[in-house]
User: Fold these one by one.
Assistant:
Number 1:
Amino acid sequence: MPTNKERNIVQTKGGVFNELSSYIKLILRLMGDRRVPFYLKLIPIGSLVYFLFPDLFIGPIDDALVVWLTTYLFIELCPPDVVQEHRDALSQIASGQGKRAGSTQDPLKGEDDIIDAEFWDKSKS
């Protein structure tokens, strides 16, 4: 039986579900970005409508293929610099370097950056 040193072990970054999650987050971020033209945002919306109501269209088209093709087409047609910006931001969040949505802590400030102040209510004086 081969030992670990003799075997080639390929370690992934999280597998299929992690990649799918990143892909969906990228699409959602691009949908919310004002630099992406509105007509391109109709592609994933149309894909979602088709996925929810596949009987609207006649033909033996596989639903998963249509969803994959339209989401791939959407990302490819978006401005490349905008796509790269969002991919970089998502990779920073995944690695723990970036600021997560809803986080109130500024990642650039340390715990030593505490402001001490007193509150004075002018209406009571």
Number 2:
Amino acid sequence: MKNHRILTIVLALITTPFAASAQVHGLSKEGATPTPPILTGVHDRDAAELADVLAIPTPVPLGPADLLNEYEQAMASTAQGFNAEVSQIAEAVQQKKITEDQGEYLCKEAYQLAMMQFQVLSSLHDMLAEQMSQTPDAPQPENPPPAAGLNGSGYHNDVHTVRANEKAI
């Protein structure tokens, strides 16, 4: 499946300039006879697959702050999913579709699953936050330039100014 997608993307990258130039060329000759399409071997199914592949936005790399936000959103989603599942179970018990014991068992299962998901997401969030707090804000240069007035040996060169008409030794 992955090879098929890669082949489709490569085919799309190769054929797109030709298709675009054919459309521009066809539009410039409005009164002329229509030219046959360049992509005669492309079927409707292939064209639909190409359109699907090209419609997928390219992923943008996420930074640590974005990942923290995603972890927080996933934790909130886990809590909302658990709430919705318990509500469905309670409704099924009220409508006598399942017994109270079955409802209790299903609620316990849903709770355990939600807690495991929440704990994993919370741990990932905490580890990333800890990494971010230990990472320096800006990288320090490896060989900082020497301070003004110092040469490499630590000797301090004082610069003396001499005014006009003064003698200095």
Number 3:
Amino acid sequence: MMRTRRGFTLLEMSIVLVIMAIAATLVVPALVDLGQTPPHRTADALLTLLRASRATAIDSNVTVTMVVDPIAGYFRVDSQGLRGSGQVAAGQIDLSTSETMVTDLPRLTYVFQPTGAARGDTVRVRGADSSLVVRVDPWSGVASASAN
């Protein structure tokens, strides 16, 4: 009579343990950062866009104009230089559901010169727990956000 075997072989158990170890190495880093990653902020997205526009103006030696709709978050970036003018980028800023851009202006306008200098509107990004003011320094053209 043949004996029926019960249980798993050492090889089967080793394969299962290797698969579990691989899964653990993929999951553990994500669990370590859980809750520590700051939420997406509208002010950060606007600052990134302003910095990219300034960099384009300096690198391409053109005047870059950025217009932002503060309610919908739509933006358009245009350049104007010796070789003509044209659209650089267009899109929508990902507005956080709990944040709004507060301003009296129907459109925010920022103009970056090839020298790095800029002029632009000031906007308050108001959220549920904080409020930040985003502005561009006219001399250096550097965009910043402060709690004022």
